Amino acid sequence: MTSHIARLYVAAGSLLALFLAWAGIAAHPWKVQPAADTTAAQAQALATYEARLRSDATLLKQLGPTQPSSAPTRQVRIVTLPPLTATRTS
Amino acid sequence: MLTRSFPAMGTEVELFLDADERSAGLLAEAEAEFLRFEALFSRFRPDSELSLLNAERTRQVGPELLELVQLALGARERTEGRFDPTVHDALVAWGYDRTFELVDASVVPDATPAPCAGDVEVDLSESRISLGAGASLDLGGIAKGWAADRALGRLAPAGPALVNAGGDVSCSDGVWHVGVETPAGHLTLELTHGGLATSGRDRRRWQQGDREAHHLIDPATGAPAAGDILTATAVAPTATQAEVEAKSLFLAGDVARAAAEADESGVPAVLVTRSGDVRLAGGLG
């Protein structure tokens, strides 16, 4: 009885090993992607990115100088406080 | 706060300096500077450099007069002739031929409109100014603002400062509350830097017969400017510029036009009409 079960395990293990070997061979792990294809794809991506940067730069130039992150200090405003000094017709 | 006031250039000058006592000497230096400029630019002093130039018609001048005349001519060009330093003869014709305190209303002047827009040539290579036929200079419309800016330049390194030359205000970084006269009392403007000036016909005016004369000559007519504006106050990067802007707005003639111009050019302005209305323009208010 025990040797019968052992034989079953051996058979199942052999089938599993065979399956894994077949899957590994079917995946063609030794086949390398041609380098030229990779370079061409990267070059295409870089060209697209560069074109987008140029387009953005042109748009920024059309918009004018970059505005400061905070508004400049306002030079004058009306307040309801007594004046230190007064202007009058010169 | 260090303060000092003194008479100069036909008005009262006030100095404010937010610094400790060690800087008090700067106030005396600024006062001396004002008095030196008065001696150079007064048309009522026969020995002033300006009077000598008006008399001699062509003259080598010092750097201050050269700079001020250049600024005045630049302002004439920019304001398309509304501001004009060659109103001297018109002012004299209308009786303003001596310091204002001495203007004698009983002396009826020859009020024939005098020509303005006279030729003035500046030769920088020789520091020489030459006046065309019939052109004499009056720098009263710009000299006080310019002097205020120069005085501020002496005070500002010691701390926040303000110079008020009879209404021509120049101030450096700080918070300054400056009152503008209106019929309802002072309107207080909070200035952080730059210049402010008021031009108007509420002072320096006199009666000639049944006509009222004042010191703001319209170069287009050679006569005291007409219109419904009593005073025009303008804010600008410097007191020199503010003085020119205020005169240009006053000479716009009517308050609606002056307000439109202030709005268009972005010059904060307070306009008071002869009927007592107050109009804010140029983004103020």
Quick gist of this model?
The complex is a heterodimer of chains A (90) and B (285). Chain A is mainly alpha-helical and 90 residues long. Chain A has two helices and two strands, in the order ααββ.
Write up this protein.
- The complex is a heterodimer of chains A (90) and B (285).
- With 90 residues, chain A is mainly alpha-helical.
- Chain A has helices at 2-26, 35-63; strands spanning 76-79, 85-87.
- The radius of gyration of chain A is 39 Å and the shape is elongated.
- By secondary structure, chain B is an alpha+beta fold.
- Helix content of chain B is 29%, strand content 29%.
- Chain B contains 7 helices and 17 strands.
- Chain B has helices spanning 24-41, 49-56, 63-78, 88-93, 143-155, 239-250, 255-265, and strands at 2-8, 11-17, 58-60, 120-123, 128-131, 161-165, 168-171, 176-182, 185-191, 194-200, 205-208, 211-214, 217-218, 223-224, 229-236, 269-273, 278-281.
- In chain B, the strands form 5 sheets. Chain B has an 8-stranded antiparallel β-sheet with strand order 1-2-6-7-10-15-16-17. A 3-stranded antiparallel β-sheet of chain B has the order 3-5-4, covered by helices on one side. In chain B, strands 8-9 form a two-stranded antiparallel ribbon.
Keywords:
heterodimer; A: mainly alpha; B: 285 residues; three-stranded antiparallel beta sheet; globular
Number of beta-strand segments of chain B = 17
Structural class of chain B: alpha+beta
Radius of gyration of chain A: 39 Å
Order of helices and strands of chain B: EEHHEHHEEHEEEEEEEEEEHHEE
Helix content estimate of chain A = 55-70%
Distance between the termini of chain B: 29 Å
Instruction: Output the radius of gyration of chain B.
Output: 18 Å
Q: Overall 3D geometry of chain A? A: elongated
Measure the end-to-end span of chain A: 123 Å
Contiguous uncertain segments of 5+ residues of chain B: none
Multimerization state: heterodimer
The biggest beta sheet of chain B is recorded as: 8 strands, antiparallel
Instruction: Note the total helix count of chain B.
Output: 7
Count up the helices of chain A.
2
Across the major sheet of chain B, the strand order is 1-2-6-7-10-15-16-17
Average pLDDT level of chain A: 73
Order of helices and strands of chain A: HHEE
Unreliable stretches covering 5 or more consecutive residues of chain A: 62-72
Q: What does the main sheet of chain A amount to?
A: none
